[in-house]
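F.,

This is the one I mentioned.
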């Protein structure tokens, strides 16, 4: 049985449509796995009080890429901060650039993925990175100097020394006396209460005793003589 031309043409068209569909599917799958600039992101952060710029690559294909960071000034590159290689992953791989960025500064981040001669990606992350309005560290203001208080004098700071009695000896406490003070020129009484005229008074008393005794003796003698007559 012969196959008609119409049947043959229909079969060819079906095969062509299937091949085209397969090619589109493969192309879509390839584009889905290919590296693109949308898989890169940049951020300005603070780490241990210092500024850093991080770039994260979430390219699931793991295409090696070179990331370059530039500080911008009026739309032009002022300096190149650094350049690092990164190989992305589905969960993301991050590279860090140490940079003491200033508030509201602008940085351009460029990505070159694949072969340098025929790169898959050769573009900047859009838009440019702008740092936060607050710096990582703030300069501490110097507190105003407080007037220093005058140094205490030696008499105020050093307590008066008190006499310490020597062990074994006693220091009698001074007790007030109610006795009147002796007049100037008069001698002090001894502990017995006698004055310095005690000897003179005793001499006079002894003389009087002798005189009195003699008078008694004479009187008795005269009385005896009178009786004898």
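My design for it:
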């Amino acid at each position: 049985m012969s196959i008609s031309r119409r049947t043959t043409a229909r079969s060819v068209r079906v095969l062509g449509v299937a091949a085209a569909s397969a090619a589109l599917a493969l192309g879509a799958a390839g584009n889905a796995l290919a590296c693109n600039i949308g898989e890169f992101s940049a951020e300005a952060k603070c780490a241990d009080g210092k500024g850093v710029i991080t770039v994260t690559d979430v390219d699931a294909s793991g295409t090696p890429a070179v990331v370059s960071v530039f500080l911008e000034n009026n739309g032009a590159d002022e300096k190149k901060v650094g350049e690092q290689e990164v190989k992305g992953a589905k969960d993301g791989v991050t590279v860090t650039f140490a940079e003491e960025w200033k508030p509201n500064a602008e940085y351009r981040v460029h990505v070159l993925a694949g072969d340098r001669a025929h790169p898959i990606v050769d573009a900047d992350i859009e838009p440019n990175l702008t740092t936060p309005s607050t710096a990582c560290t703030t300069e501490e203001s110097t507190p105003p100097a407080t007037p220093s208080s005058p140094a205490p004098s030696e008499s105020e700071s050093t307590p008066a020394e008190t006499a310490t009695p020597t062990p074994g000896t006693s220091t009698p406490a001074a007790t007030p006396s109610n006795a009147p003070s002796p007049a100037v020129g008069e001698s002090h009484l001894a502990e017995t209460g006698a004055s310095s005229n005690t000897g003179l008074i005793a001499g006079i008393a002894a003389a009087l005793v002798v005189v009195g005794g003699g008078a008694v003796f004479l009187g008795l003698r005269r009385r005896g003589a009178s009786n004898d007559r």
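Residues 22-32, 183-194 have pLDDT under 50 and may be disordered.

Talk soon.
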